[in-house]
Amino acid sequence: MFDSLLTDRETQLRLLRFLVVGGGAALVQLAVLRALKTRCGETLAFSISWVVSTTTHYFANRFWALPSGRGDTVQQLGEYFVAVALSYVINLGAFKLLRHRFGLSAMWATVWAIPPSTIVVFLILNYRVFGR
After folding, report:
1. Block means of pLDDT (10 residues each) for the chain, length 132 residues?
2. Domain extent at residue 17
3. CB < 8 Å & 24+ apart, contacts of 88-94
């Protein structure tokens, strides 16, 4: 699997587009977090920003980065939700660890909480949810 990730041109392009989408979704998350962090609790602000970012992420991946010819859209959406639920658990866990164990600000903890789930989510989305 990892060998084809490095050598298959189409997979490389899908990964590049996935990373662009992920970067855009991360910017969305940071902007929403910045707007909300003084208006509600930190965990709620993080969670809302994550939901908005994930919605952006789904549509950008579904229609551009990882276009899929699957016709079972409802099942695909369900599989996407499972993948992003895993992503949320990884992200929130990293966020809490970085905030409370390492004392990072909410913004920096959010930035550093994103990478741990990126490769896991790419593999699930590329090979299963939005598989070619």
Report:
1. 65 91 93 93 90 92 88 89 91 92 92 86 89 70
2. 2-129
3. 88/50, 88/54, 90/116, 90/117, 90/120, 91/50, 91/116, 91/117, 92/43, 92/46, 92/47, 92/50
